[in-house]
Amino acid sequence: MSDIQFWTLIFIFLSFTVYIGIAWRSRVKETAGFYVAGQGIPTVANGAAVAADWMSAASFISMAGLIAFLGYDGAIYLMGWTGGYVLLALLLAPYLRKWGKFTVPEFVGDRYSELVRTIAAGAAILISFTYVVGQMRGGGIVFSRFLNMPVAGGVGVAAAIIFTYAVLGGMKGITWTQVAQYTVLITAYLIPAAAISQTFTSFPIPQITFGQVLDELNALSIEFGLNSYTQPFTERPQLDIFLVTMALMIGTAGLPHVIIRFYTTKSVRGARYSAFWALLFIALLYSTAPAVGAFAKFNILEGLGGTAVDELPDWVENWEATGLVIINPEADTIESISNRAADGADITVDNDILVLANPEIAGLPAPVVGLVAAGGMAAAMSTAAGLLLVISSSASHDFYFRRIKKGDATEREKLLVGRLAMAGAVVIAVIGGINPPAFVAQVVAFAFGLAASSFFPIIVLGIFWKRCNAKGAAAGMVSGLAFTATYMIWSLYISPGSTVFGISPEGIGTVGALVNFAVAIGVSRATPAPPAQLMEFIEEMRYPAASRRIAPPTADQAPETELGGA
Amino acid sequence: MQRRRAAVASIRLTGLPVDVWWEETRVSETTEGKDPDNGWREEYWKRNLRLMAILLAIWFTVSFVFGILLVEQLNQIVIAGFPLGFWFAQQGSIYVFVVLILVYAKRMDRLDIEFGVDERDQNGDRL
User: Fold this and answer.
1) What is the pTM of this model?
2) B117 to A83: CB separation less than 8 angstroms, yes or no
3) DSSP state of A229
4) Of the four, A37, A82, A162, B100, which is 20 to 30 A from A271 by CA?
């Protein structure tokens, strides 16, 4: 066993012992605790849990590498996956918390109708499911790469562990486990990044220092047949950058596994602060990622470019074994570098290895490599657990409890159905993770586009426009979804590569959301307004406290204004 | 707790039992338009919407305007090695997003207190 394998095993074993220990300690028996953790989670902890839930294997493992090869255009992920939290905090989270139900379908079901609830529950399951397959795969790859295990075995081990603590602990277990996972993943991300920044610029804060290498990086990129690093719109046209960024933002705000976390806070105020803490924790990683990308790209170009093939550094050989670094057999010295095998460059480096290989590239000791592997696992596990919970709650609560039993089911029954749904989801996710459909990457784009064009518009309208009714919401959601899915299928399968105005399938969700808004408003206007009682419920949702306190007799007696209602 | 004791003491001065004072200072639950005064609601909501509009305008400006629409012009300015448009797209907008949410939460805290709709537990502590 190599040093790296030894340390990987140690860190993964230690961190998983902690996760399962936490899940065991906070196991729950009631449905409320299972789904929303009894609404007793402190805001900082909830924020860290949201951050871990949100940052998946894609954020941790792939994003910096993608940015390294996209240059400026990588900003779509950086802005798109953070800007959505502003929308969440300002437009959705506080109001949904005040409404106080378990799931997103639950909200639209109460606000609109049973039909809308069913459509939403179906969409929530579909979106969460496409996501969870990717996480299983990510977890499986980390295991297999560092432990020399076949991917199938890795996926199986990962699934068994996630299932154990998700089923055992429910939301409460998951929340506290995710706090631990956030700690592991952020530590694992920041240590190598700081070390690399220190090596290059003698200052350990990468966010500040990576500007110093940009000039040279631009020059090197051009020299090796790549686009200038900071030059905008090299990979996508400006319009598409705009639309993809927007689609990722509103998709983020519409993702059911993110929204559900804001129900776990104590109060409306807590929901606002949870969003703040969540984005702060996410920003720690997201502001570091572009620096990691730039340094890694610089390192690769400078370290490999012009080097004879038999004199390449050790890490190249280590990673060549995984098939993720490919050296063109005809090359003698490295004169061109790419991340796509089809380019036929002298050396092809896969996006996904940059973060995992970073400690080796920077010459950091084996324990750091082990820590990074544990961080990647934490990112994949935490997201998968959150997604499983959404699948389970949508299946048991929105389908079984509401539709099949028509509200007539005991607590035990509901919990059992929830756990069974989770088990079913895990089994299918494992199969999906072992034999991923060829289109996994596109499926993720699907998930965001579909969330953007289905949930976001009707939830926002439901809160801010009392006049919006069930018919409008149903029509809006169906037309937004249909429009988006049709364009995606057309652009990806029916006539691959063709677009309208250069809008990519990833960006079409923005247009789909506009379609949803327009149809929902149009149909609502043409049909009767919602009942007065419902309008009053919507009105109530807008004010945090259950009832209003009138200012005390004398205004300058400050302490009295501080005394409030239950 | 200090605060609560002071508050209870000053209520005692009014000669009413705490519980009664308590009930009397609360507006009854509103039902189907029977609320005596809905003016505060409109005012609260309007101020909430105004704050939201300002913050969302900033959100749009730093990301979509500075980071995407005007990126080429701003890239002419270079600070500490960063072309400015590039910096907004990959760093600046993220920092601004974090600050925007914090400002919203803080401002809404104040607005809630001002309109008496802040949430409290039985001890009168803020939730």
Assistant:
1) 0.85
2) no
3) T
4) A162
Residue A390 to residue A127: CA distance in whole angstroms: 10
Measured distance CA(B62)–CA(B72) in Å, rounded: 14
| Residues 6+ positions from A555 with CB-CB distance below 8 Å | none
- Domains of chain A, with CATH numbers? 3-211+235-296+362-436 (1.20.1730.10)
Q: How far is B111 from chain A (nearest CA, A)?
A: 11
Which of A457, A407, A510 has its CA nearest to residue A120?
Answer: A457
- The residues that bridge with B126 in the sheet, in sequence order, are B120
pLDDT band at A174 (very low <50, low <70, confident <90, very high): confident
For A520, other C-beta atoms within 10 Å of its C-beta total: 27
Residues of B in contact with A564 (CB under 8 A): 118-120, 124, 126
How close, in Å, is residue B113 to chain A by CA atoms?
Answer: 8
- Candidate from A24-28, A113-117, A380-384, A523-527 with smallest mean pLDDT: A24-28
Beta bridge partners of A348: A326, A338
- Please count the residues of chain B: 127
User: Cβ distance A153 to A375 under 8 Å?
Assistant: no
Q: Where are the alpha helices (DSSP H) in A435-491?
A: 440-464, 470-489
Nearest in space to A36 (alpha carbons), one of A257, A261, A254, A259: A261
Confidence of residue B1 (pLDDT cuts 50, 70, 90): very low
Contact A545 B119 (CB under 8 A): yes
| Residue in chain B nearest A552 by alpha carbon | B25
A417 in Cβ contact with A399 (< 8 Å): no
Inter-chain CB proximity A272 and B105 less than 8 Å: yes
**Beta bridge partners of residue B83, listed in sequence order:** B78
